[in-house]
Each structure stands twice: as structure tokens, then as C-alpha cells.
Amino acid sequence: MITMTITANHIRTTIAAYLDEHPEDKRELSVVLGRLDGDDDLTNRKTLPSHVTAGAILVGPDGRVLHILHNVTQKWLLPGGHLEPSDETLLQAAARELAEETGIPPHVVVPHGETPLHIDIHPIEANPAKGEPAHRHVDFRFLFRTTADIGELQAEEVSGAAWRTVNTLHDERLGQRVAQALG
Length: 183
Hints:
Pfam families: NUDIX. It contains 4 helices and 8 strands; from the N terminus they run H-H-E-E-E-E-H-E-E-E-E-H.
């Protein structure tokens, strides 16, 4: 088993900071906090029924949000994915995934803060090709800003990218938080 640099304590601290800003999400995240107190390694993608992922909400200079067309799901999603052993923080993991999937170099991306703008728990369909049963992702989504445009896409995972208005985000709460953060 690969040990991740991101610790249960880091995840716990990140959730606490998030709940200070969004106490209305406490009930939903209490299950995650309970699992962190157990022996579950939520940083490992093989941990079921759920594990932690990191995502990026990238906003361009015109206030639009970058979406990617994910090859496996054939859905337009925010950039993001599983944690890697080299990730030291959830924010760093989100920035790495953003750079990998979109080709936008990290030096032209600025994080809005160290606390996620949104933590989303959502279902993932079974993927027989990878031997993965249906499970859930606990996605820590961080807001970033950039003046750069899309670079070379990670062809193995992404087949398209587009800037879309905030009101096209599939999650209403997320859309409200992005709009509020952009002021």
C-alpha cells in the first residue's frame, strides 16, 4: 500500500476550516470526519466506499469557469482527480490536477485561498476496466484564478475544454459560492 503525504490530520484541519465558513455542511461531512477517526486511509483511491479527491474551480479574467470533457464519463466536469504520493496538501493536489489535465502551467494560476470553496460528496459509477466498483468521491474543490488560456490537454483523461459561465455549474450551491467569491 502506498502511503500518501497528505495525512488524516491535514484533511481534518481542512474540513474544520471549511466548516468555519460553511457550517451548513456539517451534517454531510460528519461521516467523513468519523471515518478519519477510524483506520480508513481516505487518501487511497482503493479505499471504499469513498475516498478523498481534489478539484479545481478555475476562473478566467472574464469570470467564466473552466470545464473539461472527461473521457471516461463523457461529462463536462471541473478539473480534478485522485491524490498522489507527491501531494503535500489538498490545495497542492488540486493545482497539480489542474495543470496535468489542462496544460495551464501552475505559475499563471493563483489560488483564492487555502480553504476549499466547496466539498462535494458524489457517486462514481463502477469502472470494470479498472476493476473499480461504484463508490463515492469526497471532492475538495479549491477556487483558482488565471489570465492564461487552456494549454495542451491530457489526452488520456480529457478530450475537450471550455470556459463556461458560472450559472452553468451543475451544482447550485457551488455556483452561488463562486459568484459570491468573485464579488
